[in-house]
Design brief:
By secondary structure, this protein is an alpha+beta fold. It has ten helices and 17 strands.
């Protein structure tokens, strides 16, 4: 008997449009011979199942069920394709854990940690995973520009602490531009992390649990045409993503070991894609994403492809692992 799979997409953040694309790709590539698949759009004002003929069915939030042809339908597993809140910050994970429904992403605790850049980097630091010098601000704090620059230097990056897809990020070259960058970040989050600029090769490292084993996928080098790997570079073709990355064997060994260590230390499951910058041979972590882009052009699916894992295999494995470990 085929299992019912809900593919959740959308969300409450600026990333919802990207999530709808990722979710549609997952829906397209999951094997319909093995699974009954349902597209679930999750927004603040409504949760809807979108049928093949684009009709909308209201999702019952009490038990995450729908009614089709007067029959109640429940789900055997949820494929999480929501970028940002509530799919990547632990909220939706907690909901499904309470309902005891398997879901493909990491657990609620891990999602909350990794979505918070400040907490993630602080937790991983004792395990030998380095990051750029940083300075924290919360909405309402007094902004001491001289202290910030003394701590992190110039240029620096001003980032919304809990946001993805480079929303709320600015690269600041001059002191007089700092206030504007802080205002931009606060539009996405009430917490900010300001980091020193690391001048080196940027790479993206995918780590997944595949057929029961934690594996590191081929590494991608990020070469942005813009000043940094911003939204335009990520989604509008203003970057070159080279897999496998043009890095030395020792660099590959170092970043592979650190990415896998971070995944294991945090007791992750499902997908993760971490960004690092090399200073010499040493990788410095920028962040970890637990619901990375899942389109055919996205980084992690491209890495999987080079590793010999098709999109259908990648998605089916995520479902199999989720059900097995529930």
């Amino acid at each position: 008997m085929k299992k019912n799979i809900a593919i959740i997409m959308g969300g409450y953040s600026s990333e919802y449009k990207i999530s709808l694309i990722s979710g549609s790709v997952v829906y397209k590539f999951i094997d319909k011979e093995k699974y009954n698949t349902y597209r679930i759009h999750i927004f603040k004002d409504k949760w809807l199942c979108i049928t093949e003929d684009d009709k909308e069915i209201i999702v019952n939030k009490n038990d995450f069920s729908i009614v089709i042809a007067n029959e109640k339908l429940t789900f055997d597993c949820v494929f999480n394709a929501i970028h940002g809140t509530p799919g990547e910050d632990g909220l939706i994970q907690s909901y499904f854990e309470l309902l005891n429904i398997p879901q493909t992403s990491c657990g609620a605790y891990q999602a909350a940690i990794t979505f918070n850049k400040r907490d993630l980097l602080s937790i991983l630091k004792p395990y030998g995973i380095k990051s750029a010098p940083s300075y924290y601000l919360n909405l309402g704090d007094t902004v001491n520009e001289d202290e910030i620059i003394e701590t992190v230097g110039l240029p620096c990056f001003v980032k919304a602490n809990k946001a993805g897809s480079s929303f709320g990020i600015s690269k600041v070259h001059k002191k007089e531009d700092l206030a504007t960058a802080i205002d931009v970040a606060y539009k996405e989050d009430d917490e900010i992390i300001i980091e020193g600029f690391l001048d080196g090769t940027e790479v993206s490292v995918g780590v997944i649990t595949y057929k029961g084993d934690v594996i590191v996928l081929p590494i991608t080098e990020i070469v942005s045409e813009n000043d940094f790997f911003d939204y335009e570079a990520k989604y509008n073709g203003k970057s070159e993503e080279i897999t496998p990355a043009r890095i030395s064997k020792i660099q590959e060994q170092n970043v592979t070991e650190l990415a896998k260590r971070a995944y294991n230390v945090l007791k992750m499951k499902g997908f993760s894609r971490s960004e690092f910058i090399f200073i010499g041979d040493e990788p410095f972590m920028l962040e970890m994403n637990t619901t990375p882009g899942l389109t055919e052009e996205s980084i992690l699916p491209q890495q999987a492809k080079i590793a010999g894992i098709s999109l259908s295999e990648l998605f089916e494995n995520a479902i199999t692992e989720a059900i097995k470990n529930n």
